[in-house]
Amino acid sequence: QKMRFAAGVAAVAALASSADAFVAQPNALLGARSNVARVSQRGPLMLGAALPSARAMPLALAPAMATKPARTVTRMASTAGETKKGGVDVQLICYFALWYLGNYYYNISNKMALTAAGGAAGFPLTIATLQLAVGCVYGLFLWAAPDARALPTTTKDDILKIIPVAFCSAAAHSFSVFALSSGSVSFGQIVKAAEPAFAALLGVTIYKKSISNGKWLCLIPIIGGVVLASVKELDFAWSALITACLANLFAAFKGQENQKLMSAPGIKERIGTVGNQFALTMLLGTLISIPFMIAKEGAKWGEFVTTFNTNPIVSFNLIASGLWFYGYNELATMTIKKTSAVTQSVANTAKRVIVIVGVAIVLGESLEPLKLLGCAIGIGGVFLYSVIDMIFPPAAAKK
């Protein structure tokens, strides 16, 4: 099991670290695809060595490109990173596969670490904070490694603007971990599928955004599905329900604050890449989480250290879950940037189904018929919520 986890983590990490190079330097994609093909039979651990650096590739192509007309060079640069008509985008397929794989294994390793450390009565906030810290170590490594990722040029004011996003991100992650420590993964994922309901309410009440009537109607199956799935678990999962709802609330706040952040003039250029934005959010989120961790579980730090040192299930799965969390989130962002809104909706729906059913089977969690029915209704409502305005465009507001 450790070998499978290690191989998978290395694959996710390699693809995530190279994602910025592919986005910023589309010509690098041509060489990367052939390199990946040559090492495909050596296993995921060899994947990182096959990917070209962000800076070396353009230098290697410079002599050849210098001999071509400017129009040809421009056409190559504009089309190299796109999917060919009638062809297969290998990079996008890898993004999808590793995004799903990372999310799947994150939920498994996270639950195993929480259970081995005592569940909700153990160290859920400590584990959540250290998961963020593990991702920070990897993000710092990418900045320090030659040709891996360029440093952002953010100012003090930029950092201050990122703090609300980082706070909401850290809170959403911590409450998600609390939910998974209190109840089953499948139940927590079903409740978290109701995030659009929180986003809609926040958007209308606090951020003064309008929601179409179609989306309001789609909230009925979302909330109804969650309620139906909760019937069999409410006797022993009230804490899971409440903390999962709080995770949804902070995730909705994060989405709104992130939109405000990225609308600030020049901040996209100073941050540089999506990877840099995620790394900065993780670093600030970790710093924000540490005082809360000390306040809630600081008195048990010695006990946690002993558990970490003596129980390999806790130590291995904590580190693995931190790497999975960082890798799959960055890959999810890269995947979303390369796909349409409908594809994103289908992908997110499929991901939740795979995680809920797959993790429940692996961990032996209950999948009662009523729970599965509620899951299907709720996730179906989420999918409909994301595409309803494309199916039935809302009428233009009257002037």
Can you give keywords for this protein?
mainly alpha; 399 residues; 18 helices; globular
Q: Can you describe this structure?
A:
- The protein is mainly alpha-helical.
- The chain is 77% helix and 0% strand.
- It has 18 helices and no strands.
- α8 packs antiparallel against α12 (238-262), α9 crosses α12 and α17 packs antiparallel against α18 (369-391).
- The longest helix is centred in the N-terminal third of the chain and has 27 residues, at 90-116.
- The model is unreliable at 21-85 (pLDDT under 50).
Set down the secondary structure blueprint:
Layout: H1 2-24, H2 28-38, H3 47-50, H4 56-66, H5 70-79, H6 90-116, H7 124-144, H8 156-182, H9 185-192, H10 195-205, H11 213-230, H12 238-262, H13 267-271, H14 274-297, H15 301-310, H16 312-337, H17 341-363, H18 369-391
Helix pairs in contact: 1-6, 1-16, 6-16, 6-17, 7-8, 7-14, 7-16, 8-12, 8-14, 9-12, 9-17, 10-12, 11-18, 15-16, 17-18
Mean pLDDT: 77
Radius of gyration, whole Å: 22 Å
Structural class from helices and strands? mainly alpha
Give, in order, the helices and strands.
HHHHHHHHHHHHHHHHHH
Shape: globular
Count helical runs.
Answer: 18
Count of extended strands = 0
**Secondary structure: helix percent:** over 70%
β-strand percent reads under 5%
Please provide a brief summary of the model.
With 399 residues, the chain is mainly α.
